[in-house]
Structures are given as structure tokens and as C-alpha cells.
Design goal:
Layout: H1 2-19, H2 21-57, H3 72-88, H4 94-98, H5 119-130, H6 138-166, H7 168-176, H8 183-186, H9 194-197, H10 199-220
Helix pairs in contact: 1-2, 1-6, 3-5, 3-10, 5-6, 6-7
Length: 230
């Protein structure tokens, strides 16, 4: 369990330090942008492998225990996660464009970014936090809590950097492309245009969800499909 906690701590700290602008700028000057990206990717992969290995070998320490009914939490939440992932494919993120050299380009907010400016981060967070419910042990709390917190914390950190860099331009983007999914739509500041997302991406989200349900047993050792027939 100590190894798992150390792996989770390493993953979070390595991402936080890599995203810290003074450290990133210093490394970029020394090894170049490409070198920094290679180093960042290697650290991220090493942290993820270490975290997965430590989780598999961690002892079972019950926190709230496992309940068959809790499995419905990820079953009901994961469709939103797979939708967000697939809807963000090949879409230009206005936030990321604003952080490119040269400043904010007033990229139009369209598609899934009308729902949230961080679709991939929210998809990751929903996946992680939804899996906390049916896995009521300490190792799962550390694993999924770290991954979910890292996803939402990373998105929040990007927002802070964007706000400092873009100023008034950022305020307009943040108002119409919210941090919390559907917040701007519910507040009447934005509308969801499904034609911009496209039928193909929506269908891809459904297919990805079905594939994960079907392959869950072989991939993660916990079959889901049989539960529908109990």
C-alpha cells in the first residue's frame, strides 16, 4: 500500500512540476520543446506503469466494501465519458489554440466545446470517479482518486494559465465554453448544436461504451454483461 501511495504521489507531483511554467521554461531552454515533450511523455508513462503495477499488487483493505448495486454507478456514468472522448476527436480546442505562441486567435467555440472546454479531462475524471463506487477498497480509492483528481486539477491549472495569459479574451472563452459540463447551456449562455458534433462521433461513443462493456471481463477481470441478466 505504501508503494501504491508513493506511485500516486509521484504521478501527481511529476505532472504538477512539469506544468509549472518556470520549470517548464527552464527545461525547454536546455533540451528544446521536443526534448521536453519526450521527457514529459516518458515520465508520464513510467508513472502510469508504476501506478498500475502497484495497484495490482496492493493488499485488499476494505473502506466501504463492494456492493453489487454500486456497479450501476459506472454503467450509468460511462456513456457520458465515452461520448466526451469521441466528440472531442479531431476537434480544435479553443483553449489550446489560445495557449499557442502568438496568443488567442479567437477560434470559434463549436461542437463539444460548447458543453465543456475540457472534454477529455472530464471524460477521464468521470471514468475514474465513477469506478470508486463499486471498488470500495483503499487501493482503489488511491488509484481512482489520484487519476480523477489529476484530470480535474490539470484542467483547472490550464484555466489559470490561460486567464493570466489571455486576459479579457479568456473571459469570453470561459463564459461560453465552461469548465463544468453543460453549465453554460443550463445558464442560457450557450446552446448545444448536435450537428456540429456529428452523428458519427455520437455513434462512436455508443460503440466504445458497448465495447468496454463487452471486453471488461477480459481486460480487467470483472465481467459486466452477465450482471444485466441477474
Amino acid at each position: 500500500m505504501k508503494t501504491l501511495a508513493a506511485a500516486a504521489f509521484f504521478m501527481v507531483v511529476s505532472h504538477v512540476l512539469s506544468a509549472h511554467l518556470p520549470i517548464r521554461d527552464s527545461l525547454t531552454r536546455r533540451i528544446g520543446e521536443r526534448g521536453f515533450l519526450i521527457l514529459y511523455s516518458a515520465l508520464s508513462m513510467a508513472a502510469l506503469v508504476w501506478l498500475g503495477w502497484a495497484y495490482v499488487h496492493a493488499p485488499y483493505v476494505e473502506v466501504w466494501g463492494r456492493n453489487l448495486h454500486h456497479i450501476w454507478v459506472p454503467i450509468l456514468i460511462m456513456p457520458m465519458a465515452t461520448f466526451l472522448i469521441c466528440a472531442a476527436v479531431a476537434e480544435s480546442n479553443p483553449l489550446r489554440e489560445g495557449l499557442l505562441p502568438g496568443g488567442y486567435r479567437h477560434a470559434p467555440i463549436r461542437g463539444v466545446f460548447r458543453i465543456t472546454r475540457h472534454p477529455v479531462a472530464w471524460a477521464s475524471a468521470l471514468w475514474a470517479l465513477a469506478h470508486l463506487a463499486p471498488n470500495g477498497d483503499l487501493a482503489s480509492v488511491i488509484l481512482f482518486g489520484a487519476l480523477g483528481g489529476l484530470a480535474l486539477g490539470g484542467a483547472w491549472s490550464m484555466d489559470r494559465k490561460a486567464a493570466r495569459r489571455l486576459g479579457d479574451s479568456w473571459a469570453a472563452c470561459a463564459s461560453s465554453s465552461p469548465y463544468v459540463p453543460f453549465a453554460a447551456i443550463l445558464a442560457g449562455r450557450q446552446k448545444c448544436v448536435w450537428s456540429e458534433i456529428g452523428v458519427g462521433r455520437c455513434v462512436s461513443g455508443v460503440l466504445l461504451y458497448c465495447a468496454l462493456l463487452y471486453m471488461h471481463g477480459s481486460l480487467f477481470g470483472y465481467p459486466i454483461i452477465p450482471l444485466f441478466f441477474w
